[in-house]
Design a protein that fits this description.
Layout lengths: L4 E3 L2 H13 L4 E6 L5 H13 L2 E6 L19 H9 L5 E4 L3 H4 L18 H4 L3 H16 L3 E5 L3 H13 L5 E5 L19 H6 L1 H16 L4 H13 L4 E9 L14 E9 L2 E9 L5
Parallel strand pairs: 1-4, 2-3, 2-5, 3-4, 5-6
Antiparallel strand pairs: 7-8, 8-9
Helix pairs in contact: 6-7, 9-10
Bound molecules: pantoate.
Length: 288
């Protein structure tokens, strides 16, 4: 197992990407905040299947955390991350910028994305997507990759990034790859590291409720209010859970639907003690 090369300043990164380009290589980008798990590694492998150089960025971005959120305790596990990337094979360059290089004194420009950033995470975490869109655009500009890879677990984030890329003519393709789950269904997330063994079991209710929504739709239920109510009851049967939202929505606009009449996104966010977990899945009514 050979750990990938790591660069921490922009000039070195640009030089490495420029030489890859000069050699005719396609460049992929996997932006992360570290604490890498199999979900991240699946993005790395997706990039490796299309690109000869994959730049993995590791940067816990302060501007996407609100006051009182988990910026300070977010897991920082660079050694383990480099070991994990070492198992993925060659063609990887890791960029670990310093916060002062990303946000130097006087930094004052921000990216605001419109309606798709407003509901759900946008409402529960004011300023979150402004921070995400800004850092992602900066990483796009720093790396200059051809293709960037994101996970479907952060569905709304992927939609916000697609909107920004289209609106601001950013010359990059965005790929959204399937959520990777533990064998029992729990979506992989760096924040799962916060869960005690008991909370880890309780957290399964997220995937169970998304599966319940899918089963209801397959059984012929179409009313979104009734489906959301059943999910709410299932989640609230656990006294430790606080629901931030349960949504059934159009997958493109995120506007709530009243009837599940076509492909619909079910998305939810739940708090378990001080840990906040999100998950989503598509609901596909069978043809009648
Ligand atoms: O999904 C994440 O880990 C982060 O939001 C991202 C895209 C790396 C931006 O900081």
């Amino acid at each position: 197992m050979q750990r990938p090369a790591v660069v921490s300043n922009l000039a070195e990164l640009r030089q490495a990407v420029a030489s890859a380009r000069a050699a005719g290589k396609r460049v992929g980008l996997v932006p992360t905040m570290g604490a890498l798990h199999e979900g991240h590694l699946s993005l790395v492998r997706a990039s490796q299947s299309e690109c000869s150089l994959t730049v993995v960025t590791i940067f816990v971005n302060p501007s996407q955390f609100g006051p009182g959120e988990d910026y300070d305790r977010y897991p920082r596990t660079l050694d383990a991350d480099l070991d994990a990337l070492g198992t993925c094979g060659g063609g990887i360059l890791v960029f670990v910028p310093r916060t002062e290089e990303v946000y130097p004194p006087g930094f004052a420009s921000w990216v605001e994305v419109g309606p798709v950033a407003e509901p759900w995470e946008g409402r529960c975490r004011p300023g979150h997507f402004r921070g995400v869109a800004t850092i992602v655009l900066k990483l796009f500009n720093m790396v200059g990759a051809d293709i960037a890879y994101f996970g479907q677990k952060d569905y709304q984030q992927a939609l916000v990034i697609r909107r920004m890329v289209e609106d601001l003519n950013v010359p990059i393709e965005v790929r959204v790859c399937p959520t990777v789950r533990e064998p029992d269904g729990l979506a992989m997330s760096s924040r799962n590291a916060y869960l005690s063994a008991e909370a880890r079991q309780q957290a399964l209710v997220l995937w169970k409720s998304l599966c319940l929504a899918d089963a209801m739709v397959c059984e012929g239920h179409r009313g979104a209010a009734a489906i959301r109510q059943r999910l709410r009851e299932l989640i609230q049967s656990n006294a430790d859970m606080r629901i931030d939202y349960i949504a059934l929505a159009d997958p493109e606009t995120l506007k709530p639907v009243e009837q599940v009449s076509g492909r619909t996104l079910a998305a939810l966010a739940v708090r378990l003690g001080s840990t906040r977990l999100i998950d989503n899945r598509f609901l596909e009514p069978p043809p009648s």
